[in-house]
Amino acid sequence: MKKKKVTQTDTAAELRRLAEERLAASGKTASHAEAEEESLRIVHELRVHQFELEMQNEELRKAGDQKEAALERYTDLYEFAPVSYFTLDRAGIIRNVNLTGASLIGIDRSHLNGRLFRFFVAHKARPTFADFLDKFFASPVKVTCELELLAEENSPRFVQIEAMADASGEECRIALIDITERKLAEDALGASEEKYRAIFECSRDAIMTLEPPFLMFTTGNPSTVNMFGALNEKEFISLGPWGLSPDRQPDGRASVEKAKEMIETAMREDTHFFEWTHKRISGEEFPADVLLNRMELKGKAILQATVRDITERKLTEAALKDREEKHRKVSQEFNALLDKLPVDLNEIVGIVEKFLVRIIGEDIVCCLAMHGEPIVVYADTHQLEQVLMSLATNARDAMPEGGDLMIATGQVILGDDYVASHGYGKPGRYALLSISDTGKGMDEDTCKNIFGPFFTTKEV
User: Fold this and answer.
1) Is the pLDDT of residue 203 over 80?
2) Which of 41, 54, 187, 210 is the most buried (most CB within 10 A)?
3) pTM > 0.70
4) CA-to-CA distance for 258 and 395, rounded, in angstroms?
5) What span, in angstroms and rounded, lies between the C-alpha atoms of 429 and 443?
6) What would the mean pLDDT of 247-252 be, rounded to a whole number?
């Protein structure tokens, strides 16, 4: 309502009336001069009071403008906040929601007010939400929980909810933060850890971890405990790595010195595979394949060591070597009498295959593809067996983490073109023996030196 402006004439009339009333009350008759002086004084006071009221009105107007501006800013912050806000009553009915909250649910907010919030919560999470709401209204302090919202199939949505009471205590404002990415990452990490734990616990190989800089054991799976003859994982960890090796390795080097070199190589190149002589708690030494892998765990670099006892393989190799030596001696005796005898290539491969599977280990699969008919050739059986053994051993070393070894026999016909392009041989029908594996292969320098009599890629 617009305020009526007080004029000077109105003020004078009011002063006249007040003066007359005061004079009548006093029972005295004032002189004209006294009445005039009193009137001027009252006019002055009224003018001062008028200015005071105008200044107060100006301050009130400014305060109102500031209040409206603050309300606009609050509304903008509420509506367009990155956090979803809902106001719920004690029954869990939505009384207000900001634009972000409506977007999170995927429904226009005009259709959200008056609806139960629990209808937008995943069925399995509704009991959790009901407990959350009951807990809050029973004691209206800030409480939080995490739950899943209803969403499209294979598109779960997880939120963290925080409840705050309003002034009346009859409603609460809940803030929803979308934690779907974090939750899915946690679930994926949990599944990965569970899978790793299953592999770790069930592996027939000994798996253990070491932490730099002191390289002490931090874990050891059941196979580790059994392999080294410990009572339990705790006893194994207490031993320390240097207590599980003899003083020196077969090459004469001190185990401590050589082990540090192997570890430094693994930390530098992320992985390292080598043979090692270990020692059980009982003092028994045994040969082993060791694979070191550098890993990151909670921001720290650690080493995972996978150890496989190769005692049986070494015994088999020694037996084969002894057999080869005996065979060589026998062959030398017969070579004086016989040149080469006709043999079935399929039969030789079949016999050798029984020994190959023991050499290559259980992680490598040996596959045979034999020709349908016998392939009779004039050849030295011992030399053929030795070639197969050597190639299988090389294939095993090239596949430390397992793979396939394929051996095939067949017949081919070489024509004039083949002889012309290769510079040797004669046209005709030949027996074919092919060996392949799924190892890492050879680089260019290795291929150039492969037929050198003293060339090797193995550690000397």
Assistant:
1) yes
2) 210
3) no
4) 26
5) 33
6) 94
